[in-house]
Amino acid sequence: MDLSQIDLASLSVVKYPDPRLRRPCQTITQFDAALAALARRMCQIMYQTKGVGLAAPQVGLALRLFVINPTGDPAQPEFESAYVNGRIVSRDGSLTTEEGCLSVPGLSVRIKRAAKVTLEAADLQGQVRQYPAEGLLARIFQHETDHIENTIIADRMSAVAKLSLSNRQLLKDLEEEFQEQQ
């Protein structure tokens, strides 16, 4: 995919059950100004939608890229990072906490994830590093890595959460809304 051909202004968050959330993501091999511009635009969208992370599939692009800012505050850009071709290389412990997703608005469910992880990813210059994380940062890494591996939060919901009438209704409403827009 030629990143310089992407209309950055037209990007917006795609919502469940949009099939673009499930497309296999391409490994990024070109580290250039177009990639940096895409990451900047994704950060803008993340802030506009009040998120702490955003993956390329969430803006309709089948690329292994995500951006984060654990503070969610655009006034704190020092906490902003982009991760290219990321993968979790180690997990330790477990922690179940409330989690939401910009692509499934209104859904907030308890998700069990590793308490500590190590993410291996390239930065925007192509330098591959390992990023150890725990707590919220570990959760964000796992959530966004799920997106670039075609997994959404509904896939991680417990059986009890899936049976919840309000969760089932929310997902059904999003499915109907998507069908109406097609």
Tell me about the largest β-sheet.
Answer: 5 strands, antiparallel
Arrangement of strands in the largest sheet: 1-2-3-6-7
Instruction: Estimate the global geometry from the Cα principal axes.
Output: globular
Mean pLDDT: 96
- Helix-and-strand structural type: alpha+beta
Considering DSSP H and I runs of 4 or more, what fraction of the residues is helical? 25-40%
Distance between the termini: 25 Å
Number of domains: 1
Q: How many β-strands, per DSSP?
A: 7
CATH arch. level architecture: Alpha-Beta Complex
What's the total helix number? 5
How would you name the CATH homologous superfamily? Peptide deformylase
Taken as a percent bin, the fraction of beta residues is 15-25%
Q: Tell me the name of the CATH class.
A: Alpha Beta
N-to-C order of helices and strands? HEEEEEEEHHHH
Under CATH, the topology can be stated as Peptide Deformylase
What would your notes on this structure say?
With 182 residues, this protein is an alpha+beta fold. It contains 5 helices and 7 strands, in the order H-E-E-E-E-E-E-E-H-H-H-H. The chain has one domain: Peptide deformylase (Peptide Deformylase, Alpha-Beta Complex), CATH 3.90.45.10. The longest helix has 17 residues, at 165-181. The two termini are 25 Å apart.
